[in-house]
Design goal:
Strand 5, helix 5 and strand 6 form a beta-alpha-beta unit. The protein is α/β, with parallel strands linked by helices. It starts with 5 loop residues before the first strand and ends with a helix. The strands form two sheets. A six-stranded parallel beta sheet has the order 7-6-5-9-8-10, sandwiched between helices. Strands 1-4-2-3 form a four-stranded mixed beta sheet. It contains nine helices and ten strands. The protein folds into two domains: 69 residues, Ribosomal protein L30/S12 (60s Ribosomal Protein L30, Chain: A, 2-Layer Sandwich); 162 residues, Alpha/beta knot (3-Layer(aba) Sandwich), CATH 3.40.1280.10. 36% of the residues lie in helices and 19% in strands.
Length: 244
């Protein structure tokens, strides 16, 4: 059966995958066995769908229906393919602006970032298929509906997206405290993509090694960092300031 944002039951989830439903994550009961369960596992792996094995109590909390050991969260939006998104934007805009989110996990932070991105003219947001915050009802609400207005692309790995953007002549800039360069000293007037890291770990070290530039926010108080959605807003409005 299907609700607003969930599908439950192994057969129903298998059919949803075959029908290319935008599935954010599948929760599977620990200890499940049988041919149908194995078919679900295979289908999840084949399609690169985010999944996790959880106790039955977790599934019982997710839905009141007969979940049969599996619940899937369905995204209320349709995701873009990265290549199609970049090509479309480059064909219509001289200096595209993209936003990459590396393992951001909080749905409300995600929603707040989507809202700010839409307000600052971001042409597309890029997230990873696994480990990223899903687009849920809370995300939509926090974004004030902006999630329906700005394209969001999912990729297997953020690193692959970085390489693709660089090959498309789009400079990739990491928002990180691991640099001496202030964001006010970086040129955002040209085609660029800004990477924001996760709430607790920041941007992955392997990604920091391949970006074109790094920039940090000046912090004048004793606390060492800002909330990621706030920091993202500062970066994006610096882009707006430079491009006016």
């Amino acid at each position: 059966m299907e609700s607003n944002t969930q599908i439950y039951g192994i057969r129903a989830i298998l059919e949803a995958i075959k029908a290319d439903k935008p599935i954010d994550k599948v929760f599977i009961q620990k200890g499940l066995k049988g041919d149908l369960f194995k078919e679900l596992e295979t289908s999840i792996r084949k399609n690169g769908i985010n999944s996790s094995y959880v106790p039955i109590e977790k599934l019982n909390r997710l839905t009141k229906g007969n979940h049969q050991g599996a619940v899937a969260n369905i995204s209320p939006i349709t995701f873009y393919e990265l290549e199609n998104l970049v090509e479309k934007v480059k064909a219509t805009k001289e200096a595209p602006l993209f936003l990459l989110l590396d393992q951001l996990s909080d749905v409300r932070n995600f929603g707040a970032i989507i809202r700010t991105a839409e307000c600052t003219g971001v042409d597309g947001i890029i997230i990873q298929k696994k480990g990223a915050a899903p687009v849920t009802a809370d995300t939509i609400k926090t974004s004030a509906g902006a999630a329906f207005k700005i394209p969001i692309a999912k990729v297997d790995h953020i690193k692959d997206a970085v390489f693709y953007l660089q090959a498309s002549d789009i400079k990739v800039i990491a928002a990180t405290e691991k640099t001496e360069t202030s964001l006010y000293d970086v040129n955002f007037k040209e085609s660029c993509a800004i990477i924001m890291g996760s709430e607790d770990l920041g941007i992955s070290p392997s990604i920091l090694k391949i970006v074109d530039d790094k920039a940090k926010l000046p912090l004048l108080g004793e606390i060492g960092s800002l909330n990621v959605s706030v920091a993202c807003g500062v970066f994006l409005y610096e882009v707006v300031r430079q491009r006016r």
